[in-house]
Amino acid sequence: MKTIKTTMVLVMMLIAGITYSQKKNGTIYIDHPAITTVEAMTQAFVRGDTQKVAGYLADDFMAYNGVSINPNEKGQNKETFSNAAKGWNDALDYFSISRTPGAYPDALEYKDDNQKDVIWVQTWEDLKGVHKKTGVKINQPMHRLFVVNKDNKIQTIITYNNANIGSEIRQSYSDRKNGIIYNHHENINSVRKLMYALENKDLDKAHSFYDENARFMNSSSSTYESISLTEQKEIDKRIFDTYDITSVDMVGYPDYLHYEMGDARVVQSWWNINLTRKSDKKAIVLPIHYLMDFNEEGKIISETAYYDSKLLD
Question: Is 228 within 8 Å of 215 (Cβ atoms)?
Answer without folding.
Answer: yes
